[in-house]
Amino acid sequence: MGVTPLIWLITIAVTIAFFVFEFFAHVRKPHEPSIGESARWSAFYIGLALLFGVGIGVFSGWTYGGEYFAGYLTEKALSIDNLFVFLLIMTGFAVPKKYQQKVLMVGIVIALIMRGAFIAVGAALIENFSWIFYIFGALLLLLAYRQAFAHGESDPANGKFMRLVRRVLPVSEEYNADKLTVKKNGKRFVTPMLLVIVAIGFIDLVFAVDSIPAIYGLTNEAYIVFTANAFALMGLRQLYFLIGGLLERLVYLSQGLAVILAFIGVKLVFHALHVNELPFINGGEPLLWVPEIPIWFSLLFIAATVAVATVASLAKTRRDADKKRRDTFEGEKVIHAPED
Questions:
Q1: In the chain, at which end, N or C, are there fewer CB atoms within 10 A of the end residue's CB?
Q2: Measured in whole angstroms, how far is the alpha carbon of residue 238 from the centre of its chain?
Q3: Contact present, 195 and 165 (Cβ < 8 Å)
Q4: In 3D, which of 11, 2, 223, 240 has the Cα closest to residue 108?
């Protein structure tokens, strides 16, 4: 793709500038964003991400453009899944609405830093060890299974990791505005706000494990991996407030993501076989008869899976709501039925 160090430097600088702007323009003063504010900024960041993808297609070729769009769509879907866990953490810690923006902002910055480190490590591994595709593929297949059938901790605020943190750190029981520590009777305590940030940072680390191998299954270009992740995380804070109520209705999102991760896992294994160098597989020779899944098919498959999971989720929640209303109505009829 031919990305120069100068382009990398400009991209990272612009990304940092966006987050600094976000902090001073929206997060520094605690408030709960309105639906209108959240919708406008969500649309802005999504539009910016799409425009950037068009730019990649025009200047670097539509093969790279397709890889970017497939990666961005995958990372955005995974990020929305992250939001559901963030919602559980916010609820578990009873974070006041007006301080949730700051928590999300810090969590998103931590996520980008961690993913940046994983991207650099992944790029180095792919450059030097082609067999890493086998490991990435197997990891994604395992994560797909866990995504589909395991739901993790139901209460991240009281999970094993957070219980360990509470044993190590002296914690106050109440919030002190948005401060991270408070001094009581001459002793320094950390506030629940710091615990929330620690919890979200830990969750970000867990999510990076499936996020980075997933997008490396769609492109080998570290620049596309980074920009797709950056744009997927931009606007995530506004999206949280915009679709907070919708998150609970996306009941099939986990299954949809499991299908996407499994598909990319299979794609990675196919690619590993196609460039095989392991001596105990086919004598160390590539298996050229193994098909390489084209990026256009990957993009269509991922988009279709996200669409089907969303439509099926909304249809199920509507049916469940209708059934609940009917059952309530029938129950009221029985209660108020005249006696003989």
A1: C
A2: 14
A3: yes
A4: 240
**Tokens 């450059």 belong to which residue?**
127
pLDDT tens string 78-126: 887 777 777 778 877 888 888 888 888 888 888 888 888 888 888 888 7
pLDDT per residue over 136-173, tens digit each? Answer: 888 888 878 887 776 554 566 666 767 777 777 777 77
**Burial of 329 per CB tally in 10 Å (0-12, 13-18, 19+):** exposed
